[in-house]
Amino acid sequence: MYLGFDIGTSGVKAVLLDETGVVRHQATAGYSVSHPQPLWSEQDPELWWNACIAATAALKAGGAPLAAIKAIGLSGQMHGATLLDETGTVLRPCILWNDGRSHTECIELEAAVEGFRDKCGNMAMPGFTAPKLLWVRKHEPEVFRRIVKVLLPKDYIQYRLTGRFASEMSDAAGTLWLDPARRDWSEELLAATGLNRSHMPELFEGCDPVGELTTEAAKTLGVPPVLVVAGAGDNAGGAVGVGVIEPGQGFLSLGTSGVVFVVSEQHHACPEKTVHAFCHCLPKRWHQMAVSLSAANSLAWLARTVGMEVAELLRRLEAHGKTETPVLFLPYLSGERTPHNDPKAVGQFHGLTNATELTDLTLAVLEGVAYSFCDGFDALQSAGAESREITLIGGGARSPFWRQLLADALDVTLDYRTGGEVGPALGAARLAMIGAAGDDIEATIRRVCAQSPPEVRYDPQAGRTAYHQAKLARYRKLYALTKVLHQDDA
Asked: What count of Cα atoms within 13 Å lies in the side-chain half-sphere of residue 268?
């Protein structure tokens, strides 16, 4: 058996695979995000560790044979700044991927390094790790002086599991301290934030073994002292989970955030299009990525606001049979990355009248998220990404209604495959399986990550393109016209 942990934004998911690669057990344990000030988004790393313990206990309670586990893999939310002192103690809450406070520091960072975007392959954005450290150096100098290690969320759990400071290429590329083409830390980029290589964890490929569980960690989790592999950032982990491992393959992820991800055979940077160009978690592979900061989270926000479950909102919409609404929704509840790089962008409804119903709001949210993916697809295409096939993954992709709407709005065929609903935790478990094999890595990768046939294929429906193209134009115009309202001199 092989255990995968995904350290997500809203909770930990644990997945257990058998020797044939079939998911036998799953469990989750949730936690909350703190927003102590506008644009801030933080979490206590101890929540992640406690959730790993709780999720493992839930697996055991569900009959999972924990004693049969042979290896553990990790995936996790990217970009989070987890700061440790010389004793390994966390210095402050982790600053998360959807934190927007470091906009000014992004400008300063790019100005400090000539050819910054060429060196890291990406535009500096507040979500990335490096500008967060500039913010800490400026606003919390006592904390900054005590920093000995900077870890990403899943890498903090790696530390708690093995006692080692380790990361891997896909997650490290999202810090802006990695040279993705060389797959190594850049001393120059680190120096621009007042850090050096000693502050960074050791780098591995995602399927590489890092070490074994410590005696304490094994006892706490109730599993044997097995091998732990390096793992993956959540998006690369999701790709491994559905077999998106070769150039031209891609996926669309409807998670808390939204991602369009396409594998490339080498590093293709195009930062001027706000497209991310990162390493894949598997050797000799890279990927391009467009990101929407609030995808399934937008629907969760509406459900929370009206006091209903997401499933009930979708049930009511489908029962009503509504497929069009005059209401527009901009899903910028946490600002936006692709294509705007605007941490101050705000969510909004437009077109409300006395006739507006809850089903209109629900449909508008589903459409607004779809249109944010349209922007991401356009950015990727302009950056030269070539995708032969697109697989749907993520929690939001469990809705057949939303899947079809996405195919219609994007005017592309989308495949929903077995494993898409499991997400990055499946990829983490597969990486554990690859790392434990110890034989021909490429052959093992292709065997373990073989792509299953589509469970359902969603072709664009005839006659829906015109509706969505017209509404997409209004969606883009609404942002352009209202952008000035949420900007200030800063």
From this structure: 22
User: Which of the 8 DSSP states describes residue 392?
Assistant: E
Structure tokens at 53: 């313990």
* CB atoms closer than 10 angstroms to residue 129: 24
Dist CA 296 CA 311 (whole Å) = 12
CA distance 214 to 115: 42
Report d(CA 393, CA 378) in Å as an integer.
Answer: 20
Catalytically active residues, by annotation: 234
Residue 277, beta-bridge partner list? 288
* CA–CA distances in Å: residue 470 to residues 279, 403, 467: 36, 20, 5
Distance CA 228, CA 241 (A): 18
Cα distances from 322 to residues 288, 315, 316, 399, 466, in angstroms, run 35, 11, 10, 15, 17
- Would you say the C-alpha torsion 280, 176, 259, 2 has a positive or negative sign? positive
Q: What is the rounded distance in angstroms from the CA atom of residue 232 to the CA atom of residue 279?
A: 10
| Cα–Cα nearest to 140, from 93, 187, 80, 87 | 93
Integer CA distances (angstroms), 363 to 258, 272, 335, 346, 360, in order: 17, 32, 21, 19, 5
Q: What is the pLDDT along the chain (490 residues), one digit of tens a residue?
A: 999 999 999 999 999 999 999 999 999 999 999 999 999 999 999 999 999 999 999 999 999 999 999 999 999 999 999 999 999 999 999 999 999 999 999 999 999 999 999 999 899 999 999 999 999 999 999 999 999 999 999 999 999 999 999 999 999 999 999 999 999 999 999 999 999 999 999 999 999 999 999 999 999 999 999 999 999 999 999 999 999 999 989 999 888 889 999 998 888 777 877 788 899 999 999 999 999 999 999 999 999 999 999 999 999 999 999 999 999 999 999 899 889 988 889 999 999 999 999 999 999 999 999 999 999 999 998 888 877 779 998 888 889 999 999 999 999 999 998 766 788 999 999 999 999 998 788 999 999 998 888 889 999 998 898 999 999 999 999 999 999 998 764 4
Helices (H), ranges, 383-464: 400-410, 424-437, 441-448
92-95-100 Cα angle (round to 5): 140
8 A C-beta contact, residue 423 and residue 68 = no
Q: Which residues on adjacent β-strands are paired with residue 94?
A: 43
- Please answer whether residues 393 and 238 qualify as being in contact, where contact means their C-beta atoms are separated by less than 8 angstroms: yes
Q: Cα separation of 386 and 263, whole Å?
A: 9
- CATH no. for 2-235: 3.30.420.40
Backbone φ, ψ for residue 263 (5° rounding): -75, 140
Q: What CA–CA distance (Å, rounded) separates 178 from 58?
A: 37
Mode of pairing for the β-strands spanning 202-204 and 166-168: parallel
